[in-house]
Amino acid sequence: MNKTRKVHKLMLYDYPEYYETAFSFRNIEKETLFLHECIKRFSKNEVHNIFEIGCGNAPHAGMLTNLGYSYHGLDLNRNMLDYAAYQWKDLPQKIKLHEANMIEFTYPVKQDFAFVMLGSLYLNNYDEITSHFDSMSRLLNKDGLYFLDWCIQFGDPLVHNDNNKFIIEKDGIKVESEFKIKLLDKKEQMYEEVWTIKINDRGRHKQFDMIERNKAILPEQFLQFIKSRDDFEFIGWWKEWNFNHPIENNDNVIRPIVLIQKI
């Protein structure tokens, strides 16, 4: 969820309560149960440790912990991690949070399952992609799974440019959000995402104008990349968060999910 490349005037990520409100449209229970189902269907290991890349405010941590998993999260933003730690301080099993860059990191506890949500895999070139998956290879146990939500680009992201405004209110905080995408370099598949957020916090107003740049990873490029490595294998990809709906072509898919396994 949290991005690793930012050019901005003011960071929404430094205000976790606003960030949480902006994304409160998500069905966290449904997403968590889907992760649980993914583990039951595909894991060869008994899963104890779960690791989230770009965890932000760690919205899934509570339910995953209650399902019996030990939750671990990585993020680059200290404010987000502090907010998550406070939010989940009363859980019977303490969550573990790690401040680091997803491009390259080490972690002392081997993991059985890892996931990244909402396209938060922000990598800008082949070297960064390689470095990230090298880090994931060190992190995961043999047969460990890596679940990627909306990180592989099926279709043209520019087709979604006309319907990216929404307003949401929660606990007296109103968030107006507008999201636009611009192609910077067609050959390198580099895109610029411009996210404008206007906050009305019980009469107090803030505006966040953030620019985030990201290299789109195309399906065929991803398959070739995984096949070129000797430490991961491709398990599958699906649409509509439904294991009965595999992706069979390169049509535009909202939030495609991809699963790979450490070998």
How would you describe what is shown here?
The chain is built from 6 helices and 12 strands. With 263 residues, the chain is α/β, with parallel strands linked by helices. It folds into 2 domains: 13-154 and 218-262, Vaccinia Virus protein VP39 (Rossmann fold); 157-214, N-terminal domain of TfIIb. The protein is globular and about 55 Å long. Mean pLDDT is 93; it is low at 1-9.
Keywords:
12 strands, 7-stranded mixed beta sheet, 263 residues, alpha/beta, Rossmann fold, disordered N terminus, globular, N-terminal domain of TfIIb
Order of helices and strands: EHHEHEHEEHEEEEEHEE
CATH superfamily label of the largest domain: Vaccinia Virus protein VP39
SS class: alpha/beta
Instruction: Label the CATH architecture of the largest domain.
Output: 3-Layer(aba) Sandwich
CATH class category of the largest domain: Alpha Beta
Determine the fraction of residues in helical runs and give it as a percent range.
Answer: 10-25%
Indicate the CATH topology of the largest domain: Rossmann fold
Unreliable stretches: 1-9
Number of strands: 12
Number of domains: 2
- Cα end-to-end separation: 26 Å
State the strand order across the main sheet. 4-3-2-5-6-12-11
Average of per-residue pLDDT values? 93
The proportion of residues in beta strands is 25-35%
Radius of gyration: 18 Å
Total helices: the number is: 6
Biggest sheet layout: 7 strands, mixed
Estimate the global geometry from the Cα principal axes. globular
Oligomer: single chain
